[in-house]
Every structure is written in C-alpha cells, then in structure tokens.
Design brief:
The chain is α/β, with parallel strands linked by helices. The chain contains eight helices and eleven strands. Helix 4 packs parallel to helix 5 and helix 6 packs parallel to helix 7. Bound molecules: fe (ii) ion (2 copies).
C-alpha cells in the first residue's frame, strides 16, 4: 500500500491556492492520504467546509486526526461530523483497516519526553493536565488494540518522540508532544508512526523500540521540496 501523508494544512483559501496543483497529483501516487491534524487554522466550520470541497476533488481515500488548531473554536465535534459526512475516516481513539494495513489514531497531547514527562503530582490543575495526556494515550492504546492487521500505522497530531521536533526552540519541546504516545507505538510494534504539529522539526526519527517516526508537517515537507506537500510511504 502506498500511503501519502501530510499535516498542518492550516487551511485558508489563500494558503491552499498554491497547494491545489501539487495536491491534485496525490491519487496517482498513493492509495490513501493521511492528514495528521491542524486541517484548519481556527477550527471554524466554514474553514472546514472550504477545505472539504478541495479535498473531495482529490478523489482519494482520506484518513485523518484533528490537531489543536481544529479545537480552537470549540467546534471539533461538528468538524469531525462534516469530515465523516464526506467519507473521510476520522480517527479519534479509533481505527480503520484497509488491505491488511491498520490505522490507529488520535490527536494526542503534550506533556514532554523521557525523563522530562510531567507527572501527576501536586495541584489539581497539574493533575487535570496530566490526565488529559494520559486519556489521549489510553485512546490510542484502545484504537491500536482493536487492530488485527499484520501492519499498523499510528497517526497522531502531537509528536511521540523528541527527535522529530529538533529544530523547534528547545523551550517549547514539552508543548510539542509526549513520549507516552511512543509507549503505545512500541507496545504494538507499529510499522510506522506519523505526526505533525512541529512545523520546524525534523523529518525522520525512531522510537526506542525501533519504530520509524515521520514528521509530516507540510511546512517541513515544502521546505525540502516546494513541489511536494505530502510524503509517500510504501507499506
Ligand atoms: Fe500546526
Ligand atoms: Fe498543531
């Protein structure tokens, strides 16, 4: 299966204009398109409506998770409904199987990496914050557990490892993802993990369990090749 992947479109009519032509080629190059969150800029239904009219013209199966920007206006449920109505497989702690490849996805959350992971101690505000991170991890765990396919692809918006966020200011690393997500990726021995959010991160990394992690934030992809707003993976 050929998987095209991108993220962080942050849709506006102006910004999508330059993507229209290169995106139109995706169906010749891939069987499925993964969008790893931040489809919109402010999470507004009108942004999504406009983006969806462009996405349906691609005539390719799309699997997506939402990102933090898609939550900005509090309309995330409506956005997911709109996407689902257009045939997009929206993963929110859920999974989807196609031709022997299983996709498990969720937005994920922040909280830091490795020894720097924030733990549930002290104020109730800290505990609530950590709980949000744990909840997203459990959602991903549940989604991955449902799959019986020989190959699993994990999709999150937030980064599961620190390696693919290198290039961003070090001060904001804990706000770019959480290594709790990587524990799920390794436990299920995924074939591939895809994420976005780190617009100025690094393309390639690996979990401690040896699973390839790919940052598919569109700004990063375009910086490497202005004609290719997505990356292709052969599984
Ligand atoms: Fe983004
Ligand atoms: Fe984001």
């Amino acid at each position: 299966m050929r998987i095209a992947a991108t993220a962080d479109i942050h849709y506006s009519p102006q910004s999508y204009d330059s993507l229209r032509e290169p995106m139109a080629r995706v169906r010749d190059e891939a069987d499925i398109l993964v969008i790893a969150g931040d489809l919109t800029n402010y999470g507004k239904p009108e942004e999504m409506r406009s983006l969806l009219s462009a996405l349906v013209r691609l005539r390719i199966l799309i699997v997506a998770v939402l990102g933090n920007h898609d939550y900005e206006s509090g309309h995330e449920q409506e956005l997911m409904r709109m996407m689902t109505d257009e045939g997009i497989k929206v993963l929110d702690g859920s999974s989807y199987e196609k031709d022997g490849v299983g996709f498990a996805g969720t937005k994920g959350f922040i909280g830091g990496f490795g020894r720097g992971v924030l733990t549930s101690f002290g104020e109730k505000e800290i505990k609530a914050f950590v709980q949000a991170s744990v909840d997203e991890t459990l959602k991903l765990e549940r989604a991955a557990s449902m799959l019986r396919t020989p190959k699993t692809v994990i999709i999150t918006h937030y980064a599961p490892i620190a390696e693919t966020i290198q290039g961003e200011p070090q001060e904001i690393f804990p706000y770019l993802g959480s290594s709790r997500l990587a524990e799920v990726i390794d436990r299920h021995q995924a074939a591939l993990a895809l994420h976005g959010h780190a617009h100025h991160g690094k393309l390639n990394g690996m979990t401690t369990g040896g699973v390839p992690v790919r940052n598919v934030a569109i700004s990063l992809l375009l910086a490497h090749d202005p004609a290719r707003p997505y990356r292709i993976f052969d599984l």
